[in-house]
Amino acid sequence: MFNKLFFVTLSTFFLFACAVNPDGITSEEFAENAKLEHGYNDIRITGEKIYPESLSPKSRLVVVNADLFVTMKVAKGDQSADQSTVHATLRYIDNSLYYDYVTVGGESVKAKNRKKTFRQCDEQCTITKYFSFPVKTSELMTARKTGLEFSVNRSTSSQDFIFVIPANYIDGLMKRYESETKEAAVGLSLQSPEMLVSVTKEVEMTQYWFNKISEQEQIAFTTWAINNKDSTKNLQTDDKDLEKLVYWYQEATPAEKAELRIWAVQSIN
User: What is the pTM of this model?
Assistant: First the structure.
């Protein structure tokens, strides 16, 4: 049966593949089904397998099936966070081309093969590629309301198959993480974005100015703070409120900064 169906549209594969169509599934449902594991230096949240949205006409013509799942990594405390990982499967009509590169956020990397590429022939030959690629956790956080676009390509300069990991899926991973950090309540209390157990002047002012700026600025600040834990790189801005936020954040202790980063992720409007 499987061999007879690879000509038909992608929607037909929904009937027997284990991935799910993310349309109509809430972020709360994705959060409930996500698996959470504690590593030594990080927390790992793995979502269920889904069908990504296809944006390119070429994808609809050549790609028979595409599915993926994401493992998001968030560092504990002030440890350096590993990159998150997208695990994907791509089945496409054999056209004698190899799609070995992935582009995310303007950066291209060579995909890592998870299993041996599989070629199958009936009335039409197809190639199934099992691969993974890294994504910065900060990029996932930024994309929780917009979705994350990526492309699978023949080279670093081409753009062939364009897909989107939907916002509700990414938001579900974030909500699963936020639920865990709230329940843990280790060190500074994370029961409410408005509360920290030991509120110093630096923490209080960081929270104050964070709540004064726009959502886009909150995302920019949070992304900067996560990517620059040692605060060696300045956040370039002309906004006075954002400048004051950065100033007070940099005045905080390393332990306070670690908790403020988690608080900021939870508090984005």
Answer: 0.67
